[in-house]
Amino acid sequence: MNIQPIHDDADLERTFARMEQLWAAEDGTPEADELEVLSILIEKYEDEHYPIAPSDPIEAIKFRMEQQGLTQRDLEPYIGSSGRVSEVLNRKRTLSLNMIRRLHEGLKIPYESLLAEPKADAHGTQPI
């Protein structure tokens, strides 16, 4: 096992190539251990050089709705009246801290996503 740090994208590509060679390694073997260490190195490098920003709050809510087959009416306990739900989903109203807390606790949407800066809609409109 000759493991080295990943310093640049060329190192990253070499590490991915080595991982491909080890992909079918059986648990408990030195090759499986090497595969695990390489995956940790890749994750560290990618987190530092290619961070993924939290998703847009409205997109996070819509994604959860799609995952769980929810309707706008199902969001009323977390956001409020049907009109308020519509305003939030159409980016006419921002989420309040109480809404964020209820969405996190009830639908398990990560705080990081709910607190992220909302993106503008297709028309460039930001929530008020």
TrEMBL record:
PROSITE patterns hit by this protein: HTH_CROC1 (PS50943)
One Pfam family recorded for the sequence: HTH_3
Domain HTH cro/C1-type: 61-114
Protein name (Swiss-Prot/TrEMBL): Transcriptional regulator
Organism the protein comes from: Halomonas alkalicola
Taxonomic classification: Bacteria, Pseudomonadati, Pseudomonadota, Gammaproteobacteria, Oceanospirillales
